[in-house]
Amino acid sequence: MMNPFNKIYLNIKIYSRLVATTLLLSAAVTACDYLDVVPPETADIPDTMKDKQDALDFLYSCYSGVNSNHGFGTLGTHEASTDEFVCPQAWGRLGQVTAWNQLSATTVSNNGIFQLPWVVTYDAIGQCNLFNKILESTNPKEVTAADRVRWGAEIKFLLAYYHFRLLENYGPIPIIDHYYETSVTKEEFPGRSHFDYCVDRIVAWLDEAAGDLPANVETTEIGRASATACKALKARVLLYAASPLWNGSFPTIGWVNVNYETPGYGHELVSSQYSREKWERARTACQEALDYAVVQGNRAFYTLQASETQRISEDVPLPDIPGVDDDFKKKVMKIRYANNTVETEGNREIIWSVISKPGAYLFWQADMYPHNIGTSNGGGLYGGVTALAPCLYTVEHFYTRNGILPEDDSELPKSSWFESAGYVGRTDIIKLNDRREPRFYANISFDGDEYSQLIKAGGPLIVDTKSSAAQGYNPTRYVWDNNVTGFYTKKWCQPNVSWRPDGSLNARQIGARFIHLSELYLNLAECEEALGNTASALEALNTVRRHAEVRDLTTADFSRMSLREWIRNERFIELYAEGHRYYDVRRWMIAPQVLKSGAREGLNALSKTDPTFEEFNVRTKVDQPFSWSDRMYLLPIPSSEIYSNPQLIQAPGY
């Protein structure tokens, strides 16, 4: 049977091409890409919905913008510009251009691959509005009234999702909620609407959609919208709206529209007043989303039993982690499988998965593996492991086995972090990487670590970051793929993956998680803390920690960090490398501190080939031109859009 991800994506791919050909979709029709409309209706247009399968294929094409917006772009898009990890400077990808404060209004794409979301997302919105228009005016064979209701709800969900993606990146945006005829004049183009107006419109779409969608979708429909996904996305939208950046603290005073007014708001774009009611509204939505997900949505955390069943069925041995017992190793595997399985494999954590396209997710995962793992793969792959090289900040903010930060753990004195932990045969492991929590070993790899159990032709790969013949610095062999920090990301490495001697890869295709259960608990914890509900916030936070196999926090732990800091750090760990950090540091308004010049550090990984243990294990600032300015809170609208639409104004500072 075809993987459901493949089935839906193939429909998207084929039908997107069909629609593009039949309808001659072209930005040249109007001056504005975000009003990417089609030529006047012709006799060909009704033919795109002759029967139910045609209509379904068209509907699936409306999901195509999801791939362009989230999930697989983490490696190189602007979302990869945070303090989680760094890429080699020679790459110069969009995430780095963003981190270096080099974005401009003329920046559209990077290397022909990675794009800022404005054009592609408004294109997707146009596709959704076109679907509605054609479905309303045609009568496809075998399409029932129930089909129309569900499909209409899916379009509302997608309109909400696409507008939210634009909102979180650009701030106040034009709302495009219907199909625009080609006769529209540029004076009729909408401008940016007030941020709160955009939030209300997005939430209204989600509320309407949730009433007409099933709580869950069938396993053959994974990736399609559900009521559970609607409520979860609504919770995120309202959490963002309650956060400091959009709740009275926007840094640019006097940023207003000139030629466009939002109904009920006039020229104002962002409220300058703090509102506790925004937190209360977000808290209600977060609790409702969580309750619905657990009860009607039948969502639950991935279990150790499910993990062990999967591991044994795939004949994957327990990982070789010095100094821990088998029970701990099984907990590590539970976290790894939770990141790399789908609902059909017993993983009900996932609320909505980004639809994966054939080969793309495998390529991304193939990118993640270290060099020199097979005879034909030595340096031929881009260094995905090197590309997502965790910073020392990341390594230092996963917890120890005692459930606290390394700097607060008396078992791990900071003065000895870079000394050998002393394991016979594994002396490369430093004390900073010893005695850590399960998520650390499931997500982060380091010198002396077993990266994965079967990856090297069915056997383990022990990372050797100091050796130029293995994964270490080698400017001749790897050219621009050398690891920057001395640490590696293995979050998306499937436990059973193996590079075979002939260079083939046995990994399966899975979907990237867009929303999952942990986020709902963390969203709720953040709202409860903001409202002063300490006990409720702590319970939601501890639910995530229990799933992560980390001890509960008590109020006694607030002497180490405040409850707010514990919640934010838990979010940093649990949602590592999932694209959240970019938005979190901005909405919390801590970006000027954590993304400033000099804040990113690693080990001394690039100074020389084949360094000694002592030369390598030195705290070292990453030598790249990182910087921060307040204009980086928002992305710039393409200059061509500003030029063509007299209603639009540019983001501050561009």
**Which stretches of 5+ consecutive residues score pLDDT under 50?**
1-31, 36-43, 357-368, 371-385
- Termini gap: 51 Å
Q: What is the β-strand count?
A: 12
Strand order within the widest sheet?
1-5
Principal-axes geometry comes out as globular
Q: Characterize the quaternary organization of these chains.
A: single chain
What is Rg? 25 Å
The percentage helix is 25-40%
Q: Treating each run of at least 4 consecutive H or I residues as one helix, how many helices?
A: 22
Strand content: 5-15%
In terms of structural class, how would the helical and strand content be classed?
mainly alpha
Give the overall pLDDT as a whole number.
88
Describe the main β-sheet briefly.
2 strands, antiparallel
Describe the protein.
The chain is mostly helical and 654 residues long. 38% of the residues lie in helices and 6% in strands. It is built from 22 helices and 12 strands. It has helices spanning 4-23, 52-61, 64-69, 94-99, 117-137, 145-170, 195-210, 227-242, 276-294, 304-313, 326-339, 360-368, 384-387, 392-397, 438-443, 517-530, 534-547, 563-574, 581-587, 591-594, 613-616, 639-644, and strands at 85-86, 109-110, 114-115, 350-354, 389-390, 444-446, 450-456, 459-462, 487-489, 512-516, 601-602, 620-621. The strands form 6 sheets. Strands 1-5 form a two-stranded antiparallel sheet. Strand 7 (450-456) and strand 8 form a beta hairpin. Helix 16 runs antiparallel to helix 18 (563-574). The radius of gyration is 25 Å and the shape is globular. The chain starts with a helix and ends in a 10-residue tail after the last helix. Residues 1-31, 36-43, 357-368 and 371-385 have low confidence and may be disordered.
